[in-house]
Amino acid sequence: MSFQHAVAARNRGWRPFPVDSPLSPDCVGLHKTTPCDGQRGKHPAVAFTTATATEPADKQLEHWFNRGPRNIGVACGPSGLIVFDEDMLGALETFAAERGETLPSTYRVRTGRGWHWYFTTPAGLEHGNSEGALRGRHVNVRGRGGYVVAAGSVHASGHVYEAEDPHAEVAELPAWLATAIKEKPARPAEDDTTAPTRTAGRDHTGRIGWGDRHNALVSYAGRLRHKGLSLTEAETLFRVRWLDCVQPLGQIPEAHHHEQAPADCNYPVTWDEALAKLRDIYTRYQPDPLADLIDDQDDALAMVRHNLDFDGKPPQTLPGRTTPLLDDEPIPVAPFPRLDDAALHGLPGKIVAAVAPHTEAHPVPILVQLLAVLGCTIGAGAHIKVDNREHAARLYPLVLGKTSDGAKGTSFGVVRALFRAAIPARPEDGALRGPIDSLVFVDLPRQVSGLSTGEGLIELVRDPVDEDDPGGVDDKRLLVVEEEFVGTLAVGRRDGSTLPRTLRAAWDGENLQTLTRHSPLHATRPHVTVVGHATPGELRLKLDDAAMLGGTMNRFLPVASRRTKLLPEGGNLPAELLAEYGPALAEAIDRGSRAGEVEQTDDARELWRASYAHLRRSRPDGPVATILARAAPQVLRIALCYALADRSPVIDRPHIAAALAIWTYAEDTAEWLFGPHVAAADLDPLVSFIASAGEAGRTKSEITRGFYERNKPVAEIEAVLAELIKDGRIRQETEQRTGPGRRAVRYYA
Which of 184, 343, 637, 700 lies 20 to 30 Å from 24 when distance is taken between CA atoms? Predict the structure, then answer.
């Protein structure tokens, strides 16, 4: 639907671009270095001022909007628009009535709170995003440099932006309204400090008026970010500014100013809402490293009022900074990985986007396991040749998630349902036909679990010993699904076990054989795919040097997983969805099973050459470097799977780009999985110490003194705490305080 709405906007002469959608499991906004702390559904997914410099073609819109759930943004300036965004229903009409004016009929979009009023910009008018006389009237103006979320988008509340009349004409901005937005906002009389006025910020009492609370808080948040304060430091000062906001009588008791609320502004601004504004600013913008901390009386007054001298002790400072350095800030932990949009290419991307609303599983495990099962089903015929070796579409996904909310099995259940829709059970007459009657192909590959020996694996795909041997296997495709992959690793650690070596040879596509039997087993051209599921904590505990250094683990593709939503009704895929994508998968399998060598296009080779040095870059010794050691062949195999899914005879540039995006996710998963290595013996006693504090929790200082008796460096203590946080065995929370002093971070088990 987003694509059609974007095309409609483009056809009006506007400049649409993709925006994050709350229907996407993770925010796809450009702030990819930190988690999204702002409101979902409004962050641009591209640099919109650059992306909207020219009118987008259909191909560009399809690239933007058919890769997963997206909202639609419209850049106002390049579109020749000026849009009035009501925060309260009827606010713009009220303003017009007060001036004795009426608003012309024009294109409008219903939002969660009011209307977006669209007007064309009169010739010669250059206007940005300032409200002028509308300041404090619950109406935001979006012009040059601004954008609005357009019809067809979804608000974080679930409300859908809908046009009042999709075919309505856009009226020209009335002259009186053009004048109004150029006026300076009215200010109250100096002696009138009691009436609920709409001031442009704080008045001489320090009070932030009813209509100025949002703008005042956002502006101050920007100043704090500009000056380079950490988020923890900024929260302290920002809270002081929030306390100066006028609040309705009987609400927000700690606020400094309470008044009878006017009829058009009767809601409070809670601390959570204010804090979301601050975090959003910190997510979107970077600080100015040359800015001084205290450059005006407001900041100095806030620090005095908030008693930021930390109990009279000399504050710690950073070079070039005059603010105290908080010694109890949250510990940075490798964030949960984020998937780049490039991975949502072609049929796999469309399938993942389609199933996302109907499953609790994370989209990336679905995507990678879909590619792996597709490659397994197609078989060993389709391949890409590198270094004189054939690499078939053979992947070993390793899905990693906590027992409680990893949704690992759920993700594979989605993939299994899709392939059962593509290849139904064989009928009694033995003729296997897919959803497309003209296609005839083989069954799904045999699926097994419970690997225990290398010999047992070879037995499942072995050649006959001779022509009279009934035990040979004609179909060399095998799908191994180990939902307890740690147990498989434990089996491989036994003395004399051949399982690790056999798994490596199977990934490499080598012929398999046993050498220690009187009747040795052989398996020619096996096509084995292994899907493993594990919890991060157990995997780290069970991995040993043999598994890492022997090369077994670098055949696996690590993929972080977690539950994205709760679906009490079961999360079953709709029949119509399976009916739509089953035939598409069937066609991809049919074409892929008849493919041979697949080559790259010139565009694909160009991107591959540009990325190769980065894939082969040297990494610091450790488990992360070891598990990512086969970057180049992994990326090419993933790209091959994408090409086969597209029914393409060649690997094109988008296939390489998609594969690189998957590999980046795998790299981030490895960092998230391993991070700093901490011995298990250091973990359990610390968890017990933290748990003994009960609901009070422990601060970092208490842990340093009470548990480690000041005998361990802070960096090492933080590494241990980070390990426990990643495993979910402890959590860190910042104290919620309203009085003076710093808010410490506490740890709970």
Answer: 637
